[in-house]
Design goal:
- This protein is of the alpha/beta class and about 300 residues long.
- About 30% of the residues lie in helices and about 15% in strands.
- The chain has eleven helices and nine strands.
- β4, α6 and β5 form a beta-alpha-beta unit.
- The termini are far apart.
- The N terminus and C terminus are likely disordered.
Amino acid sequence: MTHARQHRIQVVAHRGASEEAPEHTLAAYRKAIEDGADALECDVRLTADGHLVCVHDRRVNRTSNGRGAVSALELADLAALDFGSWKNREAWHHRDEEPDWEHRPEDRESTSVLTLERLLALVTDAGRRVELAIETKHPTRWAGQVEERLLMLLKRFGLDAPPAADDSRVRVMSFSARSLHRVRAAAPTLPTVYLMQFVSPRLRDGRLPLGVGIAGPSVRMVRSHPAYIERLKRAGHQVHVWTVNEPRDVDLCVGLGVDAIITNRPRAVLDHLGRRQPPQPPRPPQPQPPHPPQP
């Protein structure tokens, strides 16, 4: 089904192609890029030794073979865990055929804990423009250190100070207005997204926290309060909706003119929007210039 519309909705892979591969792993993000996602979404938490890692839950129990809070574990502790085999077991439990991703023992990196630094490197080397939506998780014992470390890392990649928000390849999202304020104060041109699970009475008229230009409502909000989405758009805000997996919800978002759909199923959503592209052949290696003669 192809939709005609005035602007192209961005398709964002939620924790990577997380329906088909283990969430927040290199395998999931590589799959999302191969599937044609316009952007990737990740959650970040700070380890006990100050590294930003892509893990959604406060604890690692659900998505790894380990236990404990991310904030109480060091990167080396997390690196020893398997963040992929649970998905393999789940896939085999729910269906008879082999899952689309393959967990090979020799490909340990694909299902190891993923640092934000490694994900930024993947996005930078994607061979095309792929944007990144980074959610800071709160509350946390590290308070403002999460945002501080995040901006330091973005600066290393030259992504912390875009000329304007529209030029940025990175945006920061949070349910915490305080977190977004910290980001805006330190990096005023970096776009920020205020995530919402319900319509706050003080923001019912379509306003957002000061300096924030993008609303991030849940798909339940969109279903229940479509008029609120229209108010946000009339107020001049972009709207990025999570987590949109069903075709009827994609159609609803299209009809309301939202700007981005965050989904576990980027390939299926692109297909539904009529945007699925045939896989691109790998780029041939570039010839290397001959070595100059040695004196």
